[in-house]
Structures are given as C-alpha cells and as structure tokens.
Amino acid sequence: MHKPRKIGVALGAAGLLTASSLGSAMAQDDLTEVSMVLQWVPQAQFAGYYAADALGFWEEQGLKVNFIDGGPEVFPQVEGSLPDGPEFATSWVPRVLAVRDAGQSDLVNIGQVFQRSATLSVSWADNPVASPEEFAGKTVGVWGGGNELEVFAAAQAAGLEPDVDFSTAIQSFTMDQLLNREIDVAEAMTYNEYAQLLETINPDTGELYQADDFVIIDYNEVGTAMLQDAIHARASWLAEEGNEDIAVRFLAGAFKGWAYCRDNPEECVQITFDAGSELGLGHQRWQMNEINPLIWPSPDGIGAMPQDEFDKTVQIAVDSGFLAAAPGEDYVRTDLAEQARALLTDTDLTGEGFEKGTVEVTENGE
Q: What sign does the CA torsion over 341, 302, 291, 212 have?
C-alpha cells in the first residue's frame, strides 16, 4: 500500500502541539499528511470524519487526512496492521482483537467512538422471533467474520447452539433473504439494513413496509452487545518520535467532527453525500439519526472506553472461541483521547442532553 508522503510540521513539547507552533505551521500551509482506512464504503457511519475534513477541524490541528474506503474486500484491521499501512483505522473491537490474537497486529484502541452496539436481529411480525430463545427450529441469518458473535452469544445464553438447535445462514449485504423469506431471522444494523427494510415497497399494499411489519431483537437489551467502531493505530507507529502528538491532534479533529454532526445532522448528511456516498440522502438521514445515539451521550467524553462493555466484549469473544485469550492491557490506551479532549475546551464532548431525532423514511432511501 502506498503511504502518503508526510510534510513536516512544527511540534511543541511532548504530547501536545503548542499554540505558537500550530500557528506557525498553519501560516506556512505546512500540514502533516496521514491516512485513515474506514470500516466500510462512504456513508454517514463516518460522518464525523468527513465533517472534520470538510470543515477544517483537522487542518486546525495541522493535519491533512486522506481517506481509504472500506468495503466487502477491504479489512481495516488488516490494512491498519501493515507496517506501511494507514496511520489510523476504524474497525469493530472484536475484529482487531482477532488479528492481535493471531499475532498479526499491534493495533491499539486509541478512541472508542461507538459506546453502544448497532446490531439487531429482525424477523417478520407474522413469523415472529422476539427473543434468542425463539431461534429454536428457525433459520437465523448472520454475516460471519465476527459479526455473528452477539447473535450466537445470545443464543447460547438461552441454552441453544447454532446448527444444532437452529440453522444458520450466511447473509448477503442486502436484506433480500429475509424479504424473500429464505431465512426466518436476519442480522441488521440499526443504521443500515433495518432501514433497507423500511425503504422497501410492500407488494401487498403498494406502500412502504412499516416498523410493525417486523419484530426486532436489540442485543443491547439482550445483554450480549459488543463494542464496534473504534479508532486504532499501530503501537509501533505511536512509538516513533512525534507520532503520539499526531494521534492526539487526529483524535481532537475527529471528536470535534462528531460533536458537530450531533448538533448539525442535516449538514453532515450533505457532507457525507458530497464525500462520495452512493446511498441516497434519505438513507443517509436515517443513518445519521441512528449513528448519533451510538455515540451520544458519552458520559466520560467521546472516545472514552466504557470498561464494562469492553470486559463483556472480551468475555464473549473468548467464551465463543473467537479469541484464544483476553488481550493484554496494551490494547487500550486512554491517554491520547484524554489529551485530545483537553484541546477542545469549547466543545461539548459528552452530549449529556442528547435526544435522538426523527426522520422520514423514503422509498429506496432516495
């Protein structure tokens, strides 16, 4: 992978960029260039990062950030682990733990952006599966690659084993298998696949499907939710002189971007669309409205690690055999996010009063 050329920047004392050095760097248009590989293709799941770029929040921190799109054949936890790979990677926590567990990565979690899981299981209201106990005798869709852990952990807690007490099916990245009734239950993200169902015309009515046409299982409520999108960087890269400072400034710009999208969701939808998303504005509005409550409120500040949720994530991954052992304490670094938040004294970083909005569902997400 090509690594973007880095342009020198004037650094202050260890740990933080001083105001004078930042001003000097900016005056000379002398930005440090870094790259970030995303979890998936351009969509509002990453709106905070697109906002940080478009609105100059990273430039304020002396950075120029290049995006590398994810997708079905791009694995951020692998790309970010390469010695010449991007400096930053967004990925679900279990996926990174798996490559670390295999001895193939030194990625470190430097900012746990999503505080909650977005994973659902969805069934038809006329063939309802309202709890993991009701998987018995059904065909349950999952994506695999670690995405199935929340589903299987919930089933096992209910005393059921996959492919023994219920059948499993690997899903595509659409909801066609559920819509065609090839499977009884489908895995879905609140911000994407669930919306795809509601954006589809019901052939029996000629109108869009409604929420009461479906039954959902929310793994946050079940108790097997696992931590998802987090910002990672290689420990070996962080150990190089000046790179911890770059990481702090990168986080500061990203956190400010997410705070902006919390307060200005419609503008961030347009920013995401302009960044190259092929999804319609209606779908992006739904996504933005569902992504924000995964982040906000962040009681300890955006990017902080919710320890109970992390411990549960690790336990599920170990108990399922996805991980051979729990990660070492070196997987999580909280100090860089703390320093980043300290740079943003004029920004609400907890979203204590956040309330989820409402959006209109549109056909095909247009």
A: negative
CA dihedral 364, 262, 259, 218 (to 10 degrees): -70
Q: Are residues 61 and 101 in contact, defined by beta-carbon separation less than 8 angstroms?
A: no
Q: What is the DSSP letter of 118?
A: -
Tokens of 102: 């295999």
140 DSSP β-pair partners: 168, 185
pLDDT at 17 over 80: no
- At which residue do the structure tokens 């954006």 appear? 199
- DSSP 8-class letter at 215: E
pLDDT score recorded for residue 6: 29
pLDDT over 60 (residue 29): yes
Residue 28 pLDDT class (50, 70, 90 cuts): very low
DSSP assignment of 76-94:
HHHHTTSTTS-SEEEEEHH
Distances 267 to 47, 248, 287, 343, 354 between C-alpha atoms, Å: 10, 26, 13, 24, 17
177-188: average pLDDT: 98
From CA 303, how far away is CA 237, in angstroms rounded?
Answer: 20
Helix (H, G, I), strand (E, B) or coil at 297: coil
Q: What is the mean pLDDT of residues 77-87?
A: 96
Task: Please report, in angstroms and rounded to a whole number, the separation of the first and last CA atoms in the chain.
Answer: 35
| Alpha-carbon gap, residue 343 to 251, rounded angstroms | 10
Pairing, β 107-111 against β 229-234: antiparallel
SS3 call for 124: strand
Phi, psi of 206 (to 5 degrees): 75, 5
Compute the chain's Rg from CA coordinates: 21
C-beta separation of 48 from 30 below 8 A? no
Residue 316 Cα to chain centre, angstroms: 19
| Mean pLDDT, rounded, for 113-136 | 98
